[in-house]
Amino acid sequence: MADAERKPHRVKVDRSEGFGERLLGVLLDRAHEMPPQLIAPLIAEEVASIGGRDVSILLQDYEQMLLVPLPGRRLVVGDPEPIEDSPAGDAFLRARTVEVPQDGSVRMYLPLLDGSDQVGAMVVTLDDVDDDDRRLLRRLAGLVADMIVTKDAYTDLFFQARRRADMTVAAEIQWSLLPPLSMIVPQVEVAGILEPAYYVAGDSFDYALNDDILHVAMIDAMGHGLDAATMATVAIGAYRHTRRVNTELSQMYAFMDDAISAQFGPDHFVTAQMMCLNITTGQLQWVNAGHPAPLLIRDRAVVDRLESPTTLPVGFGGEEPQVSERMLQRGDRLLCFTDGLIEEHQSGEEQFGEEQLIECTNRTLHEHASVRAVTRSLSHALKRERGGATSDDATIFLIEWRGGKADHLTTLE
Fold first, then answer.
1. Backbone angles phi, psi at 124, to 5 degrees
2. How far apart are CA 383 and CA 215, in angstroms?
3. What pLDDT does residue 2 have?
4. Where do transmembrane segments lie in this chain (predicted)?
5. What is the pTM of this model?
């Protein structure tokens, strides 16, 4: 028989279900129709099957100060844990498992990660822990995070758990607009934060990673309350529309300008900044429509401001803006912020100012490493430096470019 006529050799693959596959498979099989309130007892049952007990699900609150317990049948609901200086906070901020020995047992804190967005932490107690337990619990925590994010789209349970104070209608609108507060891929990491969390109205940000291009926008709508939130909604909607049809940066400005002007008239405006970063090459392009210049961070210190020609805020009918360009070096970070961060001042006193912002940023960069931890800590430190005052919205968005490729993630080892 000729070689071409021979049937290919078939390799027999063991497809039998092992313990780990069964454990995680039950969650996957039921996830698509699982009502949100039944997630808790199923997780508790899954953990019990490997000898675990006293399960808690901790979610990040909107101010990013605490990890608050999710109520649920068979879950342990204790006091909120601070993100700073707690085992749960360490697992959350550093995206790693933390093990705390107790009398005859181990309390494990596992980060809940969904697409790199840090949801919170899962806590469980076992009598003893081996590498198989660690592997299964880490993967189980990943599935739990996915379920929470998915179910959050059609329940208020997780919002109610995370909310620690009354929230204005304008703030509710703004939070519903936001993408995940952080994203990590091998080539780039981003993180953002809004203040005041329960009263924010006009500030917002958006981003999308389309192939090798990271698109970022920050906006600040004039005024306060519902008027500002409504303008911000229109501005972000116009930005997403133009981004999704592959519009150039200068044309994005024109479309957003027309949308705000047509909807709100000539006396209303939104400051904006739009960026495109090629995450393979490090080429950065941006348009500035009334925002403070972003700060360039290199080797854990602010080294430059991204000065560029500016055009009028959207809504005022400015001329076609000039697109600025710069090549980043690997490891460079860009700190983008709205003017509420530097213009805050007590009555009759000087504004907080950019120099104090830079000093505080440099201190924070020496204390924290990850983009998410820096963003959160910097925002809180700046709030303390400003005497806890937040008379205007204050938003931070931090980008770190690393370059390289992510193809290794498609290879099964």
1. -150, 150
2. 28
3. 56
4. none
5. 0.90
